[in-house]
Specification:
Length: 229
Amino acid sequence: MPDRQSLALIGLSGVGKSSVGQLLAQRLGLPLYDTDALIVQSEARTIAQIFAEAGEERFRDLESAALQRALSNTPCVVSTGGGIVLRPENRALLREHAFVVWLDAPTATLVARLLSQDEERPLVGGADPAGRMEALRAARAGVYAEVAHVSLNTAGRRVEEIAAQILQLFTAASIETDRLIGQNWSAIRQAARTFLSQPQPDAFEQAVSLYAHPAWEVRSFALALLGGL
């Protein structure tokens, strides 16, 4: 059977990904990887300094590398930066290797939380943080929805309450995936064999659609089978 799946948190800055991630990792007994913290550790400078000195594109390169590093240590809990979903390769990596939870809250709530913190946020600073946050929300909401398996509103809720709901959803999804894999074991193996005999770019997706239930873990599990068939 496959290894346990990782759990990833996405959403705008100030939504509570770091604090919720810490509690989830503790409850699940898994390591926690914060992509922003990994970047700061590797670069020995703050996120704001990286933006100012190297630019956003360089930061996004570092962010992609941090996500790959985190998800190579599965299973784990990953708290991501707000813009992690901007690159297609990051979205694909999240969907393939993690149960993805989109945390959200009203803009006023996010701005109030960020203004209460000392950390400088390059993309929401300046004279109109609410307006900049709304612009980020408009630009990112569609891709958050594309990547996430579930979404939760964190406004007015304690960290413990949010984490408890995520654990319920994560456990239910894991149980359902195990059931579907058990039901479709032969079909998944056939999908992998079909891919081996037809290694065109879209052959795997066609094989899974034909033979296996599209559960969120089936694709990564079937890929793991390829080496043994």
